[in-house]
Amino acid sequence: MNLALGRAGVTLGLAAAVLGVITVGYGLLRKRPDLVRLSRWYAALVFLGGFVAACAMESALITRDFTVKYVAENGSTKTPALYNFATMWGALEGSIILWALILGGYLVAVVLKFRKRLADPLVGWAVLTMLIVCVFFFGLMAGPANPFTGFSPPAGFDGPGPNPLLQNNLLMAFHPPMLYLGYVGFTVPFAFAIAALITGRVGEGWLLATRRWTLIAWGFLTVGIILGSWWSYEVLGWGGYWAWDPVENASLLPWLTGTAYLHSVLVQERRGMLRVWNISLLCATFALTILGTWITRSGVLESVHAFTTSSIGIALISFFALIVFSTVGLIGWRGDRLRSPGRIDSPLSREGAFLANNVLFAAFAFVILLGTLFPLAVEALNNDRVSVGVPYFNRMTMPIGLTLLFLMAIAPVLPWRKASAELLRHRLIWPAWIGVGSMVFSVVVGARGFIPVLAFGLGGFAAGSAGRQIALATRRQGWRGFVGRANGGMVVHLGVIIIAMAFAASSSYVRQAEFTLTPGQSAEFAGHTLVYEGQNRKQESAKIVDQVLIRIDGTGPWAPSLNKFANGNQTIGTPSVRSTFKDDVALSVIDIRDGENGSVTIRVTVQPLIIWLWIGGGVMAFGTLLAVFPGRRRNPLDAVSAPLAMEPPKEPTGVTP
Amino acid sequence: MSSLIAKGFPLRRWGPWIALFVVAVGVLSIATFGTLSAPTAQDRVSTISNSVKCPVCSGESVAASNAPASQEIRRQIAEQVQQGQTDEEIRSFYAAKYGQGILLTPSASGVNALVWILPIVAFAIGIAALAIVFRRWSTMPAERATDEDRELVDSALRAEADDSDIDNDPHGEGASR
């Protein structure tokens, strides 16, 4: 039943997408607006297909319908209901359903938002592009990643349940949907960019039409990445939250190019410049979401040789190649129209700062991409094994991060066109003192080391700048000084700064140790006292939980545990974290030795300011909401740029009129 | 110095910045050269085990992994630190035992050097490209509006006044809907 329903959903979605591409494409080429307007029905059907497929899968997972192979492989009667629900995105095939569902949702949203302009070729081509993307993802489900493969379970069959790591924390229910809302959301601006190239309307119209879509997608991606990092901190138990592993890098790459785009697009809106660059950034962002999926889903990272066995890998990389070649081709074809007049007068200006921002973000993305793919390239080249890991990424991205913080301090106070040293001297003095103040504060409370203290200083400087902008805006406009893109953007900056400082502090001053303790024994570490009180065994439906009870500085007991899952003989640990605003003490159990008078080995990780990572993430999300909220309409006569020198430069005679 | 003051060196205006610079340099030098407690044996073990890859997992460091092989290597590293070996000696011991792929920091020789050099090259190219476009912009004559341009703008404004519900915000920030 679920199987048939799911297959029907996939077939419906695929058929609607294919027919939609044919109809809308024919209508656009033959100038038949009546056909182009039909796109709304195809969009609705595509979404319906995705929705039916998702419902069928959820119903199969919740009722433990093992005739669906995906459920037989990833579901279990013992798994709690919530994790059964979240199992839809716990493995490859199900996560493609989620992707298709969200894509269908965005498609319907676009068709609704632009309902009055559906016959406009720009919107028509954008919808067509989205339909093509739908064909690809529904095609994946119909072919190489079919989630509705049948299975005939023997009597009394029970599945193994999802990967134990994926049924250990509530965040599993939120992180993947958020991430996918971000990933898939970039399809919308990408589709409009392609439409702009095809119709030749490469001016600013399409940018204005999609800027809020881009911002929303970016906001979801931000939240998704931070929830993922939180999940990894709460579940994996190695004490860290960011391992620069390929999955994390794959999510960070589109975030970096998307962030670069959100900044450089302002230059195009204001000055009509950087058209090629902006379109390239947007297409790169979308292409990187596909490349990231390929990196993480094709098995290519295990070995390049696994590549040939996975047909979904081939499908994804071909789609990536198609995107890259068609966008490069289109940009080349429209080269003449994309050339824009105008110039940037001075590097010391708002637009100059945005350019610097773009160089830095591009460099950041390049380092991550290179580090992620380098082992593959070397293995393909001379069959050597190399690893590129945390030390490499930390060392290479640190200078970029510091420069970005510095830029974040300078850029908000810069006017368009041109700034003078005098103006910077005046506007930056207070932010700079806040920066110095935070350095002094950090040194007084005991921070040492050139890099972290410099990071605190630059963070304070940047926060001062953002605070100054917000203060000025609220003085002028009251509460409306918080909303709108520029002001919301400053709130996002504050969130980024909080995260950057927490990252600098936690990675510079992390202390980690292992202790083997017998009951009643205590240990001193990094200013904290740990007392091991004893053990506790809990029997749950899916697992046996062996807790180790530990008091930290007299609080608790905190109970890190080892979980033995009934299905499969994996034992995984669940850490326990005591968070305060000052620092986190994370405990995880390494080993419980039976028969040795209850002695246990635990790992203790003490890191300052961890909680501020999640707080910073919340501030970023809040800032994005404020930025999406419509701001005050600017009076077009208000001066926002430095005046243009209307007179020619001084004559050599020195006579001024 | 006196000549500087005579010329009106803007000490009054730049004074706060000079003071700020002095304080910043002072604080940073305390931070850099101040008493930093030497890393304990435990700290060294975790630094080293963070840079050695777990031999049986995919992509995790020995520090992050809880596989028995990693636990064993962590114990071994602790012993080696106890014996007084340097970080580099310990790392090369594992590189010799398992191959270069065991180190999470790629070596800076041979093909692997590319992973260190390419980002710097790319960044340099980016900066050079920026410098070139700025040079081109600075030598480009400023555009002047012709009567034809003005006419175009006027007609566009008239058209917009007629058709005011188009989501149009040519001025960018804040005027969004």
Overview of this protein structure:
The complex is a heterodimer of chains A (657) and B (177). Chain A has helices at residues 2-29, 33-37, 39-62, 69-74, 81-86, 92-113, 121-142, 175-185, 187-199, 205-235, 246-271, 275-297, 311-333, 335-338, 350-382, 390-410, 421-444, 450-477, 485-508, 611-628, and strands spanning 511-517, 522-525, 528-539, 543-552, 555-558, 561-565, 571-574, 576-579, 583-592, 600-608. Chain A is α+β, with helices and mostly antiparallel strands and 657 residues long. Among the domains of chain A are: 1-162, no CATH class; 512-608. In chain A, strand 2 (522-525) and strand 3 form a beta hairpin. Chain A is globular and about 80 Å long. In chain B, 61% of the residues lie in helices and 0% in strands. Chain B has helices at residues 2-6, 11-33, 41-50, 68-82, 87-98, 113-139, 147-162. Chain B has three domains: 2-33; 41-102, Cytochrome C biogenesis protein (Helicase, Ruva Protein, domain 3); 108-141. Chain B is elongated and about 85 Å long. Mean pLDDT of chain B is 79; it is low at 1-7 and 165-177. Chain B contains seven helices and no strands. The interface between A and B is large, with 86 and 70 residues.
How many separate domains of chain B?
A: 3
Report the sheet with the most strands of chain A, covering strand number, pairing sense and barrel closure: 6 strands, antiparallel
Give the strand tally of chain B: 0
Radius of gyration of CA atoms of chain A, rounded to a whole number: 27 Å
| CATH domain topology of the largest domain in chain B | Helicase, Ruva Protein, domain 3
The secondary-structure class of chain B comes to mainly alpha
Just give the CATH class of the largest domain in chain B.
Mainly Alpha
Could you name the ranges of chain A where pLDDT drops below 50 across 5 or more consecutive residues?
Answer: 304-308, 646-657
Q: How far is the N terminus from the C terminus of chain A? A: 87 Å
List SSEs of chain A in N-to-C order: HHHHHHHHHHHHHHHHHHHEEEEEEEEEEH
